[in-house]
Amino acid sequence: MITSGKRHSDAPAIELRGASKVFRTPSGGLHTAVRDLDLTVEQGEFVAVVGPTGCGKSTTLTLVSGLEEPTEGEVLVGGVPVEGIGPEVGFVFQQDAVFPWRTVLSNVMAGPRFRGVPTAQAKERAREWLARVGLASFEDRYPHQLSGGMRKRVALAQTFVNDPSILLMDEPFSALDVQTRALMSDELLELWGGTGSSVVFVTHDLEEAIALADKVVVMTAGPATVKQTFPIDLPRPRKVESVRLEPRFVEIYREIWSSLGEEVRITRERGAASAA
Ligand SMILES: Nc1ncnc2c1ncn2[C@@H]1O[C@H](COP(=O)(O)OP(=O)(O)OP(=O)(O)O)[C@@H](O)[C@H]1O
């Protein structure tokens, strides 16, 4: 289902109010993945979400995306309850979401074409975004002829070409090597800077979260709820490799890790106890 509700221009981009999600497990039991979660993402804000493995970060994104409905509570996008997947939402995941049988250009054109943009116009927009991600001369290649970093650039072009006002990113760079990852983070910041879109970026990497975000949200050990929110007062524009070396960055890292580390320990201890 595609949402068509009217957005309120002055409302936060995203709001979760007391949101919970309970899944039925294959054995017939109930599993609470997200519990009583309150989170606000302002328009144009870049929010990074960190939390221990399996705590419910991806589930939180699926609630915002409309792929799943909350069991309790409310999820609002632009002040309007989410009902299905809205056209204003773009996704980037860890896995590449490219059609392997289509060229790079055809992949980037696919979204606008699906939304009814005429071919010539879709091609022009796709080429603009391919140029912005440095892949202008690769438009005729197929995804398997590209490196991991290049495929990720295609994914960014594929997403930004649709002008999403909300960008949901679930560990988008975690499969990349460290250097490519830093480059991609810089590119993301540059691309995002020109759009004014609101971002929710889920990551395991606290350094990546701080380098990118305006606000870092620490989730509890599952079920996920917001433990603490940290505003990141590092100036922009940022380059992730150099911002990491600033004394303020290190200070922020220590502060957030003292909160996150506790939840990571709880998760590990639970894992050890259930294995015993
Ligand atoms: N569709 C589903 N049905 C049943 N349980 C689910 C479903 N989706 C997620 N879960 C469970 O909910 C919990 C939270 O999962 P989720 O993927 O949101 O965590 P995460 O924080 O994103 O994990 P990771 O950091 O490892 O990527 C997990 O215990 C998971 O097994």
Counted by DSSP, the helix tally is 8
Q: What is the average per-residue confidence, as pLDDT, rounded to a whole number?
A: 92
Low-confidence stretches: 1-5
Biggest sheet: strand arrangement: 6-7-8-3-9-10
Strand count: 10
Distance between the first and last residues' Cα: 45 Å
Strand content: 15-25%
Question: What small molecules accompany the polymer chains?
Answer: adenosine-5'-triphosphate
Q: What is the alpha-carbon Rg in Å?
A: 19 Å
The biggest beta sheet is recorded as: 6 strands, mixed
Structural class: alpha/beta
Structural summary, described in words:
InterPro entries: AAA+_ATPase (IPR003593), ABC_transporter-like_ATP-bd (IPR003439), ABC_transporter-like_CS (IPR017871), ABC_transporter_ATP-bind (IPR050166), P-loop_NTPase (IPR027417). Pfam families: ABC_tran (PF00005). GO terms for molecular function: ATP binding; ATP hydrolysis activity; glycosyltransferase activity. The chain is of the alpha/beta class. Strand 1 and strand 2 form a beta hairpin. The radius of gyration is 19 Å and the shape is globular. The chain has helices spanning 57-65, 104-114, 119-132, 148-160, 178-193, 206-212, 240-243, 247-275, and strands spanning 14-24, 30-41, 46-50, 72-77, 80-81, 89-93, 166-170, 198-202, 215-219, 226-231. The strands form two sheets. It has a six-stranded mixed sheet with strand order 6-7-8-3-9-10, with helices on both faces. Strands 2-1-4-5 form a four-stranded antiparallel sheet, covered by helices on one side.
What's the quick description here?
Helices cover 37% and strands 22% of the residues.
